[in-house]
């Protein structure tokens, strides 16, 4: 007999499904029925928990934030900066196949959000995820002695290069593009650590 899900578990399952559907199909093509099918729950449950489509976008972005932020905090808290950055790049590398086939889920949703004030909370959540990533990298570089402004600039550059490589690898359906860029980013991070 299947275990009955709590209301919060259903909400989380639908939010994750929304994230997956929007990533796969894009925000504009995503439908309530597709989210329900992905979650394996009735469509009425989607309407009940997310009465407007922008509520689904917000939930999808909150799901990304809720997964990514703790992940960064959990990376080798007692390790060295070099170890933490190695694990971080290993994580990016593990995501490569899905990034090549579907692009970045966060970037895809952020680019698809309509220019409408109703989407401002969702936009702010997505920006917070990118900012959290940049800030985490910058924090690692500050620990080894890089000045805060340079560390932030380098963190932004690393994220920008990774995101650009995702776009190109996805567009060209060529994993080598993303593999090469992640390898180069590893070397860049090591040079920054060594030069600090």
Summarize the structure.
With 196 residues, this protein is mainly alpha-helical. 80% of the residues lie in helices and 0% in strands.
Descriptive account of the structure:
The protein is mostly helical and 196 residues long. It has a domain at 61-195: Tetracycline Repressor, domain 2 (Orthogonal Bundle). Helix content is 80%, strand content 0%. It is built from 9 helices and no strands. The protein is elongated, with a radius of gyration of 18 Å. The termini are far apart. The model has no long low-confidence stretch (mean pLDDT 92).
Write the topology of this structure.
Elements: H1 7-25, H2 32-39, H3 43-49, H4 53-74, H5 81-102, H6 105-112, H7 120-143, H8 148-172, H9 175-195
